[in-house]
Structures are given as structure tokens and as C-alpha cells.
Write a structure and sequence with these properties.
Blueprint lengths: L2 E6 L4 H13 L2 E7 L5 H13 L6 E2 L3 E2 L5 E9 L2 E2 L1 H9 E2 L5 E8 L6 H11 L3 E9 H5 L5 H17 L4
Parallel strand pairs: 1-2, 1-5, 4-7, 5-8, 8-9
Antiparallel strand pairs: 2-3, 5-6
Protein name: Flavodoxin
Pfam family, one: Flavodoxin_4
Length: 168
């Protein structure tokens, strides 16, 4: 099964999960950069209100072609209980997502708020079949074994895809 892991990270927590997941699954990484270039204070003062309004950021890359993958994973930090503006833009930038299986994850200091529900809806609206979501706390990010649940979900998808003969 080919996996593409698309993620946005400002502090490195989401990147750490994405990199561990790529190492565990052999997936390809695509890091999305928010061109706003937030400072730590700016993330909270400017970014979180934009996230709560479900705004999209100007991002790089501006187009993300996932047509060559069977499964797409989208990861984001939690800002104001929601995906970041860069993550919102990343989902909108996905080309070839229709008909793919998808999984979403988020990283946060506390709970995920509406982040995973919102990502699930955005991916489904783009035609993806979202088969799971996973939330990681800051403590989980520091635990190298925490990514195992997400990697296990992807391995389960690979086995069910192979047994069904599916070619998503």
C-alpha cells in the first residue's frame, strides 16, 4: 500500500508524528508551510482565530497531487480547537483525493476539540473515504511508541485492501 503523509507543523510536534509514521509505514512525507510565518505568539493571537473561522492559509506547496497513492494521511496541530489554516488549505489543495482512503491525526496540548471531526468532513467532502482519526497529546509525541496505533491502523487498511483486491 502506498501512503502519502501530508502535514502542517509549526512547533515540530506534528512533524515528529509524521516522520515516525513515515518510518513505520514507508510512506512519503509532504510538509505544508504556512506562508504567513507565524511567531509563537502569532500562532495564538492571529492563527487560532483564523482556525476557528475555518480560514485557509496561503501555503507551499499550493497543489498536492496524491493521485499515485492508495492512502492519504493528513496531520495538523490543534489551534483553537480546529485544524490550522494551513491544514485547511492543504486539504483543499489535494489533487486526486477522490476515491482514496484517508486517515487524519492531530497534535495538541490538551484535547482535539473539533479538529478531527472537521478534517473528517473536509476529506469526505473531497471524495475520500475517511477510515480513522487519531489524536496525540504533547506527552504522546514524546513517546516513540505512541505512533504505533496510527501505523497499526494503516497496516490494517493495507491488509484489507490487499484481501479485497482493491486498487484505490
Amino acid at each position: 500500500m502506498s501512503v502519502c503523509i501530508v502535514y502542517h507543523s509549526e512547533t515540530g510536534n506534528t512533524r515528529a508524528v509524521a516522520e515516525r509514521l513515515a518510518a513505520a509505514t514507508g510512506g512519503d512525507l509532504i510538509e505544508v508551510k504556512d506562508l504567513a510565518g507565524y511567531s509563537k505568539v502569532g500562532m495564538y493571537l492571529k492563527g487560532a482565530p483564523r482556525a476557528m473561522r475555518k480560514e485557509r492559509a496561503a501555503i507551499e506547496p499550493s497543489v498536492i497531487d496524491v493521485s499515485g497513492y492508495e492512502t492519504v494521511v493528513v496531520g495538523t496541530p490543534v489551534w483553537g480547537g480546529n485544524p490550522t489554516p494551513a491544514a485547511n488549505a492543504a486539504v483543499a489543495a489535494l489533487q486526486g483525493i477522490a476515491g482514496k482512503t484517508a486517515v487524519a491525526f492531530c497534535t495538541s496540548r490538551g484535547g482535539p476539540g473539533k479538529t478531527l471531526e472537521t478534517l473528517r468532513e473536509m476529506l469526505a467532502d473531497r471524495g475520500a473515504e475517511v477510515l480513522g482519526t487519531v489524536s496525540f497529546t504533547t506527552r504522546d509525541v514524546r513517546d516513540p511508541d505512541a505512533v504505533k496505533a496510527l501505523a497499526g491502523l494503516l497496516r490494517t487498511l493495507a491488509v484489507s485492501s490487499a484481501s479485497s483486491g482493491s486498487s484505490r
